[in-house]
Amino acid sequence: MAPDPKAWERHLTLADGKPVYVRAIRPEDEALYGAFVAAVTPEDARFRFLVPIRELSRSLVSYFTHVDYAHAMAFIALDGASGDMLAAARLHNDEANASAEYAIIVRSDIKGRGLGRQLMHLLIDYARGTGLRAIEGKVLYENKAMLHMCRELGFAIASDPRNAAICNVKLSL
Asked: How much is the average pLDDT of 107-127?
């Protein structure tokens, strides 16, 4: 049975006091992606997608906003005042529903205020709450902030044997 996405809604506060509302992503959130992507630097986009990208195709945005909650979860973080998209955090379960790959992207002008860390904690809590045994990710070696956070949260970090530019990170739950 798929978990109730409404049960995972959260009201967060950033380090600077900015209110943030986090909920499961919905199809109508496609409209928020244009302004969001425009506010993400090329480097931050590369950190998230592991390759340089200029823009997200309409089909990719549709994929991001249409989630099968039985096999994945995607959260969107919205500015509590304006409703603008500030971040997205995702988990995609493996075929056995034993572990999930995570991904987080935070709007570049919001980075450094604790939103990424709060979203990672939410992903970890969600994974535990749904019975997953691990969460995993691929992080560019250059993405020192993400690797630092993963290290602090207890993730095992190893070089990817197929790509020296990537670290494989895994948190056993």
From this structure: 94
Any idea what the CATH number is for the domain that residue 92 is in? 3.40.630.30
Domain count, the chain: 1
Rounded Cα gap, residues 74 and 105, in angstroms? 11
Confidence class of residue 46 from pLDDT cuts 50, 70 and 90? low
Residue 93 in any domain: the answer is: yes
Residue 34's domain comprises: 5-132
pTM of the predicted model as reported, rounded to 2 decimal places? 0.90
Closest CA to 50 of 119, 88, 95, 105: 105
The answer to whether residue 70 scores a pLDDT higher than 80 is yes
Helix intervals (H) in 20-143:
33-38, 42-49, 58-65, 115-129
